């Protein structure tokens, strides 16, 4: 925890002796914001600390508990049961492990009689059991574990002595369903421990007041918002965009072209952290780096699909400064304080200015020295995006998403959990729930529907009373029907729904061609990916090229393949859409040739040719290009609203084009534009007045067309699946618990269809629609765009593809061509297209 | 979606010969109906398979409250296909109920619906792996296998193919479906899978999913050169050779 100034102590500070002595021995002195937070928390305020990375947030967060524990002193042996004193919650398991390591250091050095333990999904059962009987003073854990502890009969005993709750990385927690779950947990904890104070730690956010209210009880008599300590400043980071000799690709998300330059940077720095946006990029980049690693530098890989043991090893090696570089995804996004990182390389566009700031903060964990970072865009639009993000970071722009309304599926999970803890009185529980800020506006009617849903599914046809999961007792309280329900709750708890995954195990095939048992577990891979493999196929995983040997029970057996040309696992998800703020910046840059000076020659040339061949849209303008290619007619809309909003727009536009008789065949969406293609000459139809662009892009598409599409959309089914799992309607799939052979499962798509045709107002459909509007479909953003472009649509009917269209044209068909032929086909297509666009 | 759409339509099309496909199974004439039933005109027999009635309730018994509307929806389609052919015999080819307790706990109104449909005809419940013990308090006879009119009826297709044993076998269990891909679009539908020697029925129940014909569980069952997937379209059967499914 090297988070305090290395300045000679020159005065007295209001701290217990062991602290002053410790600081003095180190030659450090606590910072002003640490002391301010300490005294205000001691004064009984709930607190929010907003500070840039390296400002000593963690120590600040723990000072109130540590000083309080020191005053308490050692608990004499034989004294009665004592519940935990401080609860620390972080969104990442890795973070709790890291904090334990960092917290133990001062505790040991000061010789404090304080016990610190972590508890995550990886903690062995025996240790978790022991923690309930003999809790540590400080427990470091995750939102899921908090929910588990609260759904227990012993919850009150465990939490009644709680003084402080420290919530780390609060800005990232509150915007997700995990944050909703945690807010409900906090509301319950306050019942057990009314004296408890919250301390939120956060990176810079757009609206601190959101977090200040989140930290305190709401409801009928809301508490005053948490006090705010806002640390600004710190040295501005030193960020550059990687210059390259290689050709910057037109499209795609891998930055392999820049590998030689990235490798050179690793050589020049002590420890480099390389951030990528997806696991796929991580695997590929890691593999490619090793092909050029002539000096055998210690370069490691870290992403969420890797085995826990593997990840811990990398983390430990990192902390000991044994690594020269780590390629990582968002699993390392947050405040992990490891080793002496002196360079952050960000591969691919950061997609959001706040995200970039957060990741860059990983370098040089001291606030007063500038962090050093290099951005490596994967394609030409990303070059502009990186430039925009770079400008934004200097301006301190913030684009964190707002704290949303609490999700209903999470609420259903919580209600069942509370019944598992002890029978609940519905009025009391309702009051408790609306004290959690995301649920402050929950109506009593909706709460009743949720309780009914938890009990019997909430159907108008009441045929499941005899199977009810929770029942009303004579005293009006609800209890769980039987212990098996509580067990089911524990197995299904949590808000993260993963696609079905298989464990990947490395085995050695013997001479007879059969595979042996045992071998190292490498991590997990999605089932759909394994299903398309046949024995002998090779793919890349955990930084190795592996040969698929077969499936045994729920394990995917692989051997080392001595091949350099693998099939690569494509991981769904993990791509963040471009934020509104950055999109604005990119549009502004595109419209202003003066700003192109900052861009590399290749990108500038590309924009200049576009200006000759077609036009570049003004910042408030929507450019539509149409052109024939092959036997198809294409329409490209340059909206710059992010992939999700474009996907929704694509679905709606194809419906409308179909009605207009343009016979559309398909569409593809990127963060920057949308391409629709069909059998009829869309451009000609617009020219002849048979198709009106202002009608096509009218806001009214968000009415009936949206409704009609939602009814059959696949995306909504995926959202529904998540809601069904989180709300407890169906069980999670548990590795190792599946029956052999065909699983007894039910398709959530079918359940969705049944509900839609028989009970369209069902509460879970309501939950799904709410989720989709704010999440996957990005309807709000699409709505804003349609408003903005009204009367500002410019159409260019071209003879052939334009330079600006090349990136998205290269995305077409990518998903349809599987396997290794992929690259060759794409390369061929790319060369043709580019030649055509520049001719 | 498709089957639920059918169930939800206020009038399911009746009348013979609309969108059906006439085929031969081991020399016996058969009619594949887009509603998911197989009619044998020579014997007046209607076959349906994998109704999985009370699937929602079966899950509810285990704490998962699936919508309780699946049974009525499946029975509505069954009533329509029975009305269309007025068969002498109805064979339900196993997995009639989703679990062993399904028929015992069947709500009375649904029980009455089945009794109405069975009136004036023979009804045979073939036992499936989900409901091996037969049915409780329902009309008809329960059995594991049926030999009739030159055909063998059983729930699970026997594994040894190419021998006399599977000639003329009508089975269910696998819920076959097939994907047809043309241009950029692909469509997946439940199907009758028949290579002339044996036929595997599509699942009739609205809550039962499908298993693709290319899945490993389907391997070795059919002569792929002769295999045709008869897909259940909205109002008609689409017959596509196995080799032409993906265009």
List keywords for this structure.
heterodimer, A: 839 residues, alpha/beta, Rossmann fold, 4 domains, seven-stranded parallel β-sheet, six-stranded parallel β-sheet, 41% helix, globular, disordered N terminus, B: 247 residues, seven-stranded mixed β-sheet, 4 helices, 16 strands, 17% helix
Strand content of chain B: 25-35%
Protein structure class of chain B: alpha/beta
Low-confidence stretches of chain A: 1-13, 568-575, 735-744, 815-827
Give the end-to-end Cα distance of chain B, rounded to a whole number of Å: 24 Å
Number of strands of chain A: 25
**What is the CATH fold-level name of the largest domain in chain A?**
Rossmann fold
Give the helix tally of chain A: 32
Number of strands of chain B: 16
- Beta content of chain A: 5-15%
Shape of chain B: globular
Based on secondary structure, the structural category of chain A is alpha/beta
Name of the CATH first level of the largest domain in chain A:
Alpha Beta
Number of helical runs of chain B?
A: 4
Largest sheet of chain A: 7 strands, parallel
Residue-averaged pLDDT of chain A, rounded?
A: 81
Determine the mean pLDDT of chain B. 88
The whole-angstrom Rg of chain A is 28 Å
Measured between the Cα atoms of the first and last residue of chain A, the distance is 60 Å
What features would you describe in this structure?
The complex is a heterodimer of chains A (839) and B (247). With 839 residues, chain A is of the alpha/beta class. Chain A has 4 domains: 214 residues, P-loop containing nucleotide triphosphate hydrolases (Rossmann fold); 158 residues, 3-Layer(aba) Sandwich (Rossmann fold), CATH 3.40.50.300; 60 residues, no CATH class; 181 residues, no CATH class. Helix content of chain A is 41%, strand content 15%. The longest helix of chain A is centred in the first third of the chain and has 18 residues. Chain A starts with 16 loop residues before the first helix and ends with a helix. The N terminus of chain A is likely disordered. In chain B, strand 12 and strand 13 form a beta hairpin. Chain B has one domain. Chain B has 4 helices and 16 strands. Chain B starts with a helix and ends in a 6-residue tail after the last strand. In chain B, the strands form 2 sheets. In chain B, strands 8, 9, 10, 11, 12, 13, 14, 15 and 16 form a 9-stranded mixed sheet that branches. By secondary structure, chain B is α/β, with parallel strands linked by helices. Chains A and B meet through helix 19 and helix 28 of A and helix 1 and helix 2 of B.
């Amino acid at each position: 925890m090297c988070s305090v100034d290395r300045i000679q102590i020159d005065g007295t500070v209001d701290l217990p002796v062991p602290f002053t002595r410790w600081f003095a021995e180190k030659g450090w002195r606590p910072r002003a914001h640490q002391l301010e937070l300490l005294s205000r928390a001691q004064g009984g305020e709930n607190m929010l600390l907003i500070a840039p990375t390296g400002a000593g947030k963690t120590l600040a967060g723990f000072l109130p508990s540590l000083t309080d524990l020191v005053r308490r002193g050692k608990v004499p042996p034989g004294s009665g049961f004592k519940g935990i004193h401080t609860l620390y919650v972080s969104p990442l398991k890795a973070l709790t492990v890291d904090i334990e390591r960092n917290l133990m250091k001062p505790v040991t050095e000061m010789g404090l009689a304080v016990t610190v333990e972590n508890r995550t999904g990886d903690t062995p059962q025996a240790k978790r059991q022991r923690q309930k009987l003999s809790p540590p003073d400080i427990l470091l854990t995750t939102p899921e574990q908090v929910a588990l502890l609260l759904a227990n009969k012993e919850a009150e005993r465990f939490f009644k002595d709680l003084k402080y709750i420290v919530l780390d990385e609060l800005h990232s927690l509150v915007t997700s369903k995990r944050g909703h779950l945690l807010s409900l947990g906090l509301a319950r904890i306050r019942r057990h421990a009314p004296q408890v104070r919250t301390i939120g730690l956060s990176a810079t956010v757009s609206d601190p007041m959101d977090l200040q209210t989140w930290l305190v009880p709401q409801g009928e008599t809301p508490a005053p918002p948490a006090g705010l300590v806002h640390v600004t400043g710190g040295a501005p980071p030193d960020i550059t965009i990687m210059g390259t000799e290689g050709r910057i690709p037109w499209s795609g998300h891998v930055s392999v072209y820049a590998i030689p330059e990235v490798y050179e940077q690793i050589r020049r720095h002590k420890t480099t952290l390389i951030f990528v946006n997806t696991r796929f990029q991580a695997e590929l980049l890691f593999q490619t780096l090793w092909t050029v690693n002539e000096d055998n530098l210690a370069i490691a890989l870290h992403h969420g699909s890797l085995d826990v043991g593997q990840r811990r090893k990398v983390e430990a090696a990192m902390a000991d400064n044994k690594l020269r570089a780590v390629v990582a995804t968002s699993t390392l996004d947050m405040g992990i304080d490891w080793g002496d990182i002196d360079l952050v390389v960000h591969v691919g566009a950061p997609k959001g200015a706040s995200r970039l700031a957060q990741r860059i903060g990983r370098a040089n964990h001291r606030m007063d020295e500038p962090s050093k970072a290099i951005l490596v865009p994967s394609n030409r639009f990303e070059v502009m995006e990186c430039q925009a993000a770079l400008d934004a970071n200097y301006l301190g722009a913030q684009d964190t998403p707002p704290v949303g309304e609490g999700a209903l599926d999470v609420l259903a999970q919580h209600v069942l959990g509370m019944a598992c803890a002890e029978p609940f009185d519905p009025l009391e529980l309702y009051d408790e729930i609306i004290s959690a800020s995301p649920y402050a506006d929950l109506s009593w009617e909706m709460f009743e529907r949720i309780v009914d849903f938890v009990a019997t599914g909430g159907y108008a046809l009441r045929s499941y009373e005899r199977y009810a999961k929770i029942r009303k007792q004579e005293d009006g309280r609800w209890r769980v029907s039987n212990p098996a329900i509580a067990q089911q709750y524990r197995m299904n708890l949590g808000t993260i729904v993963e696609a079905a995954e298989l464990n990947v195990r490395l085995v050695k095939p013997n001479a007879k061609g059969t595979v042996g048992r045992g071998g190292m577990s490498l991590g997990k891979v999605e089932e759909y990916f394994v299903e398309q493999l046949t024995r002998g196929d090779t793919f890349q995983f955990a930084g190795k090229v592996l040969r698929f040997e077969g499936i045994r029970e729920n394990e995917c057996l692989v051997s080392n393949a001595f091949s350099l040309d693998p099939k690569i696992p494509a991981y769904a998800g993990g791509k963040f859409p471009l934020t509104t703020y950055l999109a604005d910046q990119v549009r502004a840059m595109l419209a202003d040739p003066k700003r192109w000076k900052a861009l590399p020659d290749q990108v500038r040339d590309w924009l200049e040719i576009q200006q000759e061949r077609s036009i570049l849209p003004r910042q408030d303008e929507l450019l539509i290009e149409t052109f024939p290619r092959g036997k198809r007619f294409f329409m490209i809309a340059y909206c710059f609203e992010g992939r999700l909003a474009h996907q929704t727009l694509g679905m709606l536009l194809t419906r409308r084009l179909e009605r207009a008789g343009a016979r559309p065949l398909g569409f593809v969406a990127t963060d920057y534009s949308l391409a629709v293609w069909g059998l009829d000459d869309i451009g000609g139809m617009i020219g002849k007045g048979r198709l009106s662009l202002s009608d096509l892009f009218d806001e009214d598409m968000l009415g009936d067309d949206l409704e009609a599409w939602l009814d059959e959309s696949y995306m909504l089914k995926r959202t529904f699946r998540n809601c069904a799992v989180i709300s407890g309607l169906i069980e999670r799939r548990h590795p190792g618990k599946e029956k052999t052979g065909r699983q007894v499962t039910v398709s959530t798509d079918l359940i969705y269809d049944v509900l839609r045709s028989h009970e369209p107002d069902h509460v879970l459909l309501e939950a799904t629609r709410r989720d989709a509007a704010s999440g996957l479909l990005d309807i709000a953003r699409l709505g804003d765009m349609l408003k903005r472009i009204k009367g500002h649509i410019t159409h260019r009917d071209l003879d052939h593809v334009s330079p600006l269209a090349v990136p998205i044209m290269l995305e077409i068909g990518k998903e349809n061509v599987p396997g290794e032929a992929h690259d060759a086909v794409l390369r061929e297509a790319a060369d043709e297209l580019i030649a055509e666009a520049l001719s | 979606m498709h089957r639920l759409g059918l169930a939800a339509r206020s009038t399911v099309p009746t009348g013979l010969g609309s969108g059906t496909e006439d085929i031969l199974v081991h020399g016996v004439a058969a009619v594949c109906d887009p509603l998911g039933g197989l009619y044998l005109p020579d014997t007046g027999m209607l076959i349906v398979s994998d109704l999985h009635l009370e699937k929602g309730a079966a899950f509810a018994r285990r704490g998962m409250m699936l919508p309780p509307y699946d049974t009525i929806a499946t029975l509505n389609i069954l009533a329509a296909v029975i009305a269309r052919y007025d068969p002498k015999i109805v064979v339900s080819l196993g997995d009639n109920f989703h679990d062993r307790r399904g028929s015992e706990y069947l709500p009375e109104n649904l029980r009455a619906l089945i009794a109405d449909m069975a009136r004036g005809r023979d009804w045979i419940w073939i036992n499936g792996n989900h409901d091996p013990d037969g049915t409780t308090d329902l009309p008809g006879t329960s059995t594991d296998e049926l030999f009739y009119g030159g055909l063998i009826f059983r729930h699970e297709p026997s594994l040894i193919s190419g021998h006399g044993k599977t000639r003329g076998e009508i089975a269910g269990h696998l819920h076959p479906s097939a994907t047809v891909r043309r241009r950029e679009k692909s469509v997946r539908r439940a199907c009758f899978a028949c290579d002339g020697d044996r036929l595997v029925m599509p699942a009739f129940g609205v809550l039962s999913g499908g298993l693709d014909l290319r899945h490993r569980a389907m391997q070795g069952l059919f002569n792929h050169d002769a295999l045709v997937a008869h897909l259940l379209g909205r109002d008609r059967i689409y017959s596509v050779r196995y080799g032409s499914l993906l265009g």
